[in-house]
Amino acid sequence: MRTVRAPATSANLGSGFDVFGVALDRPADVIRVEKASRTTIEVTGVGSQYIPEDPEKNVVGAVAEALDAPAHIQIDKGVRPSSGLGSSAASAAGAALALNALYDRGYSRSELVPAAAEGEAVVSGEAHVDNVAPALLGGFTVAREDEVTTVDTDISLVACLPEIAISTRDARRVVPTRADMEDVVHTVGSAATLAVGMCRSDPELVGRGMDERLVTPARSELITGYENVRTAALDAGATGVTVSGAGPSVLAACYPDDRRQVAAAMVDGFDDAGVEARAYQTRVGGGAVVF
Ligand SMILES: Nc1ncnc2c1ncn2[C@@H]1O[C@H](COP(=O)(O)OP(=O)(O)OP(=O)(O)O)[C@@H](O)[C@H]1O
Ligand SMILES: N[C@@H](CCO)C(=O)O
């Protein structure tokens, strides 16, 4: 038997659509695997009632198949599904690492990224790696075609999760297919600023670098109360605010001492819009861990 803790992640960070990702210190899924002749899945924990146990439909089934590693897989969800906090990626990355250890396959974490991404394809239709890469490798990750670059960084974050569910598949339908050159230039500037901020562990640069006009405006319209929450977080000291992944979570960067007040302001911002929410006071953390 092998057990892995696999972290929540936040993809995009505004300016890095389908490219940037960070591992979050919390919340996390716990995955336990035991060798078996065929794959079976059991899901407990947050939102487990919405997660299929059929190996054809659960992300970990695709991972077990990609690694040719049948197992009984128990998933204890700490990351709510359809949250924008890489719920499916936490399970997929955790299963990839656990099965690799169980069957002594000897793959490196980087080599496991494509196998974990097969799980993402099951739920969103595309094997994008911007959540599974940070869930496996930790830190800030930049995914470009089949190459992933990682940076260790120390940035405080608040992830505020409202009681709204948005599937990645639906949120991808609102992404514009064309862009204005001025907005593209603005986004490249933001992305570069954010990357430098991560390298320097500088919350001001990271926060400013989240700003972009290509995807976030369309995505934020799916989140009731987004503008309220954004303004409240900035007023409470956040250095930048954006949609986490495909939403509905909202992500804020801040100084460590401001985390508590930013979290409270974001929950109040959703409350003013009539939406219940909870906030995770977190930071950029490490990748999945085998116990
Ligand atoms: N092991 C799993 N954990 C979570 N969701 C799963 C799992 N297996 C299948 N799913 C399905 O995947 C969907 C959730 O994935 P989705 O990518 O939409 O959300 P997310 O991972 O929280 O978001 P994001 O990728 O934007 O951070 C739900 O429909 C859920 O039933
Ligand atoms: N980059 C992906 C992350 C969500 O899984 C998106 O925003 O659609």
Give a verbal description of the structure.
- The protein has 291 residues and is of the alpha+beta class.
- The protein has two domains: 2-151, Ribosomal Protein S5, domain 2; 156-283, GHMP kinase, C-terminal domain (Alpha-Beta Plaits, 2-Layer Sandwich).
- It contains ten helices and eleven strands.
- It has helices spanning 59-66, 87-102, 109-124, 132-137, 168-173, 181-200, 203-208, 216-220, 226-235, 259-272, and strands at 2-11, 20-35, 40-45, 71-77, 140-144, 147-151, 156-162, 240-243, 250-254, 277-283, 289-290.
- Strands 1, 2, 3, 4, 5, 6 and 11 form a seven-stranded mixed β-sheet that branches.
- The longest helix has 20 residues, at 181-200.
- The protein is globular.
- The termini are close together.
- The model has no long low-confidence stretch (mean pLDDT 96).
- L-homoserine (HSE) binds next to α5.
The CATH topology of the largest domain is what? Ribosomal Protein S5, domain 2
CATH architecture of the largest domain: 2-Layer Sandwich
Q: What ligand molecules are bound, each kind once?
A: adenosine-5'-triphosphate, L-homoserine
Find the count of extended strands (DSSP E, 2+ residues): 11
- What's the overall geometry? globular
CATH top level assignment of the largest domain: Alpha Beta
As a percent range, the share of strand residues is 25-35%
**How would you state the average pLDDT, rounded?**
96
Number of helical segments with 4 or more residues: 10
Cα radius of gyration in angstroms: 18 Å
Order of helices and strands: EEEHEHHHEEEHHHHHEEHEE
Distance between the termini: 10 Å
- Percent of residues in helical segments? 25-40%
Give the domain tally: 2
